[in-house]
Write a structure and sequence with these properties.
Strand content of chain B: under 5%
Distance between the termini of chain B: 19 Å
Shape of chain A: globular
Radius of gyration of chain A: 23 Å
Number of helices of chain A: 11
Structural class of chain B: mainly alpha
Distance between the termini of chain A: 56 Å
Shape of chain B: globular
CATH architecture of the largest domain in chain A: 3-Layer(aba) Sandwich
Oligomer: heterodimer
CATH topology of the largest domain in chain A: Rossmann fold
Largest sheet of chain B: 2 strands, antiparallel
CATH superfamily of the largest domain in chain A: P-loop containing nucleotide triphosphate hydrolases
Number of strands of chain B: 4
Mean pLDDT of chain A: 86
Order of helices and strands of chain B: HHHHHHEEEHHHHEHHHH
Number of domains of chain A: 2
Largest interface: A-B, 42 and 32 residues
Number of strands of chain A: 10
Strand order of the largest sheet of chain A: 6-7-8-3-9-10
Largest sheet of chain A: 6 strands, mixed
CATH class of the largest domain in chain A: Alpha Beta
Low-confidence stretches of chain A: none
Helix content of chain B: 55-70%
Order of helices and strands of chain A: HEEEHEEHEHHHHEHEHEEHH
Strand content of chain A: 15-25%
Number of helices of chain B: 14
Structural class of chain A: alpha/beta
Mean pLDDT of chain B: 92
Helix content of chain A: 25-40%
Number of domains of chain B: 1
Radius of gyration of chain B: 22 Å
Low-confidence stretches of chain B: 1-10
Chain lengths: 296, 372
């Protein structure tokens, strides 16, 4: 029974009992209003784009996430570090719908309950995810990879009759330039180097035009130069997109946060919950963090 | 297939038409062959002439063309989407049975018992048609069933299997179980489809005698054109974005999901399309071969469809058609020359192709071409 039905029933009973005149309600005929609730639309007026509360995930008794609470502001870039098994990837699985938590809440903006949506729906509302191991469509060309990721109707029929228009073509062209793959546009994606695949996958994420990007170890297997360029790229995205970067490479984290000079926060996960949060320098100085992670 | 253009930095998109000029030429040649050449060689060239196409040859090619449609359908689901079905025989047989029911009704009172019901029903002492035969005297209704029955079965089966995310070898096994279960069901007399004898001894189609040379040739031409039509349809499908999503599902299904596509819908769509193609192939097969029985639903029959696709070359559209012709051509020659060795040969062929020619015959041809 839905709340609306219950309210309607209570009203009918009140009218029947003579407590209420037909057409009048207790609130004087006003409907309950839910301001600003537009289902399916992202609402970040309260500041947070991602809000995790008390998320617990256990696998056979092992708590991969233990009452994890985390909030990411709109436009923020947040780095997440933590030793192996701290629950970084599981957290991404929960956000993207791959794993259902035993307990807790996960909201995208203040209105979208992520735990009710499936993977593809979560992707469609604007959460893009890069996997730890780069996953691109190996048999398709670089261009086709980007074309599939391009924001467009995901239905079967519209895919059958899909044709790129000039504007979309320009977007793909611009993206190819941005990820330095313009000369490889017609190459089969499977033939790219590891670092290039990482870039292609990042490019595919950006083609989806997501509000929130989850990047799981985005620079693994990249050369120093590529890593530097990636840091620049991510910093340029900030503002329009919110980013969550999970990384082991402290040098990369240092580049992203400019060693704490740009005010970016770092979150340290340990055994499935937040151990510390703050500027990189603060976190590095934190005794608990040093003990479990940095001071190895 | 995909145009490998020299990378010209100015153009990042290859604009390929449905087919290259050369391939269009081949398609027209195939149309001429089935719609003009074969009828002339069979009907007009006298039987003594060296150019005469015998009735046997016509029937054999027609049969193989039906198989080729199945191989093409298999390729869409296996080669392009990466889902190996070992139960496609059931869709072929269901299409065949839908056609067979109509043909049985067309026999009228000319059966052994001279009664207006099919002989097997008379034999079972049935007085009226079971509900499944409700529309069997209408050609149009039965032709709709040719599409609807395999389509509906595929939809229901596929929906539950894909929704439960059953993949890989598990999916193949349950498709095999499905066709086996259907075979056992159709073997039973009570089911009302002629038991293990199935349907045979057809006399007429649309009140025209079925065994005349011109009717046989008409069916041949329809089959050939259907095959060519399905080839072009499949070409269109795989060269659309839909086709690329299918290939993406084959290569990295999770990535497809996290890109916002619902793989269930895509897999279900191509699965149903593939099943319907097989159903139509079955309906074309039955009047030309003159028999349909539950043997078509045997697991081995479905596995053979997969072999045709694998031998010809998965993931190309012409490959499975070539594979169907090659394997069945070899079969008809072998079963005459060395009947007892056919199955050994088929097994050896499958092993050899798997080990030495993972891309099938098409792969071999391509490698030769690249080498020169």
């Amino acid at each position: 029974m839905t709340p609306e039905l219950m309210a309607a029933g209570a009203r009918a009973k009140a009218i029947h009992d003579g407590l209420l005149l037909p057409g009048k309600t207790e609130s004087g005929g006003r409907e309950a209003s839910y301001s600003r609730v537009a289902t399916g639309e992202l609402d970040v007026t309260h500041g947070a784009i991602l809000y995790l509360d008390d998320i617990t995930v256990s696998f056979d008794g092992f708590k991969a996430l233990n009452a994890l609470s985390l909030s990411i502001s709109a436009g923020e870039m947040r780095c997440i570090i933590g030793p192996n098994g701290a629950g970084k990837t599981t957290m991404m699985d929960v956000i993207t719908g791959k794993t259902r938590p035993d307990l807790g809440k996960a909201f995208f903006g203040s209105t979208i309950d992520l735990l009710r949506l499936r993977e593809n729906e979560i992707a469609s509302i604007g959460i893009g995810r890069k996997f730890q191991k780069p996953t691109v469509f190996e048999q398709l060309s670089v261009f086709e990879n980007l074309e599939l990721a391009l924001k467009a109707d995901r239905g079967v029929r519209s895919s059958m009759f899909f044709r790129l228009n000039g504007e979309q073509l320009d977007r793909i062209g611009a993206m190819l330039t941005l990820i330095h793959l313009k000369d490889s546009a017609q190459r089969t994606a499977g033939l790219l180097s590891h670092g290039q695949k990482q870039w292609l996958e990042i490019g595919m994420l950006l083609m989806q035009d997501p509000k929130l990007l989850l990047l799981d170890e985005p620079v693994a297997g990249m050369t120093d130069e590529e890593t530097e360029r990636t840091a620049e790229l991510f910093l340029s995205l900030e503002g329009n997109h919110s980013l969550v970067v999970v990384e082991h490479d402290m040098k990369f984290i240092g580049e992203l946060t400019q060693n704490g000079k740009n005010g970016k926060k770092v979150t340290v996960l340990h055994e499935g919950s937040v151990l510390a949060e703050g500027l990189l320098s603060e976190v590095q100085a934190n005794e608990k963090v040093v003990e479990v992670y940095l001071g190895r | 297939m995909s145009a490998v253009l020299p990378t010209a930095p100015a153009t990042i998109v290859p604009r390929v038409g449905l087919l290259s000029v050369k391939s269009w030429g081949a398609v027209f040649a195939a149309i001429i062959f089935v719609a003009v050449l074969m009828p002339v060689l069979n009907l007009l060239v006298p039987a003594g002439s060296a150019l005469h196409a015998s009735d046997y040859a016509v029937q054999l090619v027609a049969k193989i063309m039906c198989y080729a449609i199945c191989a093409l359908a298999m390729d869409l689901i296996w080669g392009y989407t990466g889902i190996l079905s070992l139960g496609h025989g059931v869709f072929f047989a269901l299409g065949g049975y839908a056609m067979g029911m109509y043909l049985m009704r067309q026999i009228g009172s000319d059966g052994q018992y001279r009664l207006p019901m099919p002989d097997f029903m008379v034999f079972l002492n049935w007085k009226e048609f079971p509900w499944t035969w409700g529309v069997s005297d209408s050609f149009i209704a039965q032709m709709l069933l040719v599409v609807l029955v395999p389509g509906l079965l595929a939809f229901v089966f596929g929906y539950f299997a894909f929704r439960s995310r059953i993949k890989g070898v598990y999916f193949s096994i349950i498709t095999q179980a499905m066709t086996y279960a259907a075979m056992l069901l159709f073997f039973r007399n009570e089911t009302g489809f002629g038991g293990n004898n199935g349907f045979t001894d057809f006399k007429r189609i649309l009140d025209v005698p079925i065994a005349t040379p011109s009717m046989r040739m008409l069916l041949f031409v329809i089959t050939g054109l259907t095959l060519i039509g399905f080839f072009l349809f499949a070409r269109w499908l795989v060269s659309s974005k839909f086709g690329r999503v299918l290939q993406a599902i084959r290569d990295a299904e999770t990535r497809v999901m996290f890109t916002g596509y619902d793989p269930l819908r895509y897999k279900l769509a191509i699965w149903v399309i593939s099943a319907v193609m097989c159903g139509i192939a079955g309906a074309l097969y039955v009047p030309q071969v003159g028999i349909i029985n539950p043997g078509e639903m045997s697991p081995a029959a479905s596995i053979e469809i997969a072999i045709w696709a694998a031998v010809g070359g998965r993931g190309t559209l012409i490959g499975p058609i070539i594979g169907a012709f090659f394997v069945n051509g070899a079969k008809s020659w072998f079963t005459q020359a060395f009947p007892e060795f056919w199955l050994y040969f088929l097994g050896a062929l499958f092993i050899a192709v798997t080990i030495f020619l993972p891309q099938g015959i098409i792969g071999l041809v391509r490698r030769k071409k690249d080498a020169t």
